[in-house]
Amino acid sequence: MRPTRKGLLGVCAAATVLATVGACSSSGGGAGAKGAGGGAGRMYTIGVLTDVTGPAASANKTSIQGVRAGVVRAADDGYTIRYVVADTGTNPATTLTVAQKMVTRDHVFAVIAASSVTFAASNYLTAHRVPVIGVAQDGPEWATAKNMFSVIGAVQSTKVSDTVGKFFKMQGATTVGAVGYSISPTSSEEAEAAAASSKVAGLKVGYLNAKFPFGSTDVGPLAIAMKSAGVDGFTATTDPNTAYAMISALRGQQVDLKAALLATGYGGDLLQAGPGALNAAQNVFFFIPFEPVEMKTAATRQLQADLRAVGVTTEPTFATYSGYTSLDLLVQGLKGAGSRPTQASLIASLSAIHDFNAGGLYGTHKLDVNDRQNIVFGVDNCFWATRLEGNSFHLVPGADPICGQTIPGRTVSPSS
Predict the structure, then answer these.
(1) Are 399 and 384 in contact (CB under 8 A)?
(2) Residue 3: left if φ>0, alpha if ψ -120 to 50, beta else—which one?
(3) pLDDT, tens digit, for every residue of 300-343?
């Protein structure tokens, strides 16, 4: 008999996430469960590589909530999942160390990666042929390593789509400012790509800083420069602490923003970004590559039900979605990996998935997780946008989702 959701809550809530490793398991899931495929009824130990502490924690630590909810969903499909959490500390050296421990000590079957510094462990995990599922938010390894599968696609961050520019134009912005981190290739390149997208839409790029120090909130000089440049549209491919500090500084300079568009901060992230975050985020637009829960679709209701089953009642974050959908992709891979899956057969199964729907959270869209050449901005170059007003997020008309096209021949320089 499968465990009840109440039983799963008891098991997962007891997990302790230490500075390096924690663990949790579901406690059942028989071969006869609904939707069961190859390998159902067995227990699988996976590693969760994420930023529990350090500068990127404000964006990524809630990935564990998503994993816990995904464990519940996997149990409904007959799969028993145990996980260990490895805290990167948002430090490349630590990331490699904890990844090695997961492989050599915990003997993980696969790794869920939701970290800004996954790149530091990717060569090691690839050399040991460990299947890695997660979100391409840090570097190009998601496009080059054939054992790595991103739930938002193997993002080509040096290519340009017109989606961001279309959004700014729709909101009435004329001059755009963009900020990204120096340490993260993806953050840096996506800031440049957002600027290029704005140019494609016929907007002016007044300010671009794709080499900002990771996690810094020393943003005063940037705000002054943006004011001088006449910026009225702003985007940051940074963690929430940097982004909110930037918006507060711009408002302190009396900059009249038509639109501030952030890649992180949606949902419960606002509760962990420090004092004043809620005020700083008023009327800010947030985009995610999945249906937001405000849409109240069957898929978002299922996500919220699975989160409630593990005691999470706050609004899900981008990291929550990433952890949850990573479990969905793992299960889809296990179903095609044979009656007794191996790491090799799981990679082979994942390599054959070209129609990932993220448990319905992509709406009518489907993602080819093995397209390592053409994905610029998630599924079909789409994102879903919400706007914070008061204490709640609201859907943005025309951006539920807003989709674009890749601009042929338009690229930005790779981050070094």
Answers:
(1) yes
(2) beta
(3) 999 999 999 999 998 999 999 999 999 999 999 999 999 999 99
Amino acid in position 9 = L
- Position 391 scores a pLDDT of 84
**Contact status, residue 257 vs residue 249, Cβ threshold 8 Å:** no
CA gap 285, 303 in Å, rounded: 22
Beta strands in 257-400 (DSSP E): 259-262, 285-288, 382-389, 392-395
d(CA 332, CA 301): 20
How many domains in the chain?
2
Asked whether 282 and 388 are in contact (CB, 8 A), the reply is: yes
Burial (Cβ within 10 Å: 0-12, 13-18, ≥19) of residue 15? middle
Q: Are residues 170 and 229 in the same domain?
A: yes
Structure tokens at 32: 């006869």
User: Using CA atoms, how far apart are residues 390 and 384, in angstroms rounded to an integer?
Assistant: 20
What is residue 272's predicted lDDT score, i.e. its pLDDT?
54
Give phi and psi for 162, each to the nearest 5: -95, 10
User: Are 36 and 290 spatial neighbours (Cβ–Cβ below 8 Å)?
Assistant: no
Cβ neighbours for 104, distance < 8 A, ≥ 6 positions apart: none
CATH number, domain of 403, equals 3.40.50.2300
Helix (H, G, I), strand (E, B) or coil at 65: helix
* pLDDT at 265 (0 to 100): 85
pLDDT band at 241 (very low <50, low <70, confident <90, very high): confident
Q: How far is the C-alpha of 189 from the C-alpha of 210, rounded, in Å?
A: 7
Per DSSP, what are the bridge partners of residue 207?
177
* Residues 153-182: tens digit of each pLDDT: 998 889 999 999 999 999 999 999 999 999
User: What Cα–Cα distance (Å) separates residue 9 from each residue in 83, 150, 214, 356?
Assistant: 14, 27, 35, 28
Residues 6+ apart with CB under 8 A from 135: 113, 114, 150, 151, 152, 322, 326
Q: What mean pLDDT value characterizes the chain?
A: 89
Q: What is the pTM of this model?
A: 0.87
Which residue segment(s) compose the domain that 186 sits in? 159-290+380-411
Give me the pLDDT at residue 263, please: 86
Measured distance CA(353)–CA(323) in Å, rounded: 18
Q: Is residue 367 part of a domain?
A: no
